Amino acid sequence: PRLVEDAPITIESKKVHDMVMREGHGAMEFYSATYRLFKMDELEPACEDYGQAVIYKGTIPRAESGWRLDKGHIFETGKIHPVCGNTWYMLTNPQVKD
Known about the structure:
With 98 residues, the chain is α+β, with helices and mostly antiparallel strands. The chain has helices at residues 14-22, 85-92, 94-97, and strands at 2-9, 30-36, 53-55, 66-70, 73-76, 80-82. The protein starts with a strand and ends with a helix.
């Protein structure tokens, strides 16, 4: 999974907040997270650097100047971006490429 964005969530309801505190979970933190998921058998368990690089052409509507794959990969149009083997495979796979 690729984390695209995340943000803390606050408890706005006094009733829920009091219940969380009463149950002894006051130190608990809540987050909202958006993930980009890929189902590809060829992905490796760890990110390995094989020297691949990609260039984003700016062809996605409303993302002509750049595109964000996840929190760690923002591709600016026309620039060379080194990527690991898994990222390269994801971006060059026909499911994503087209």
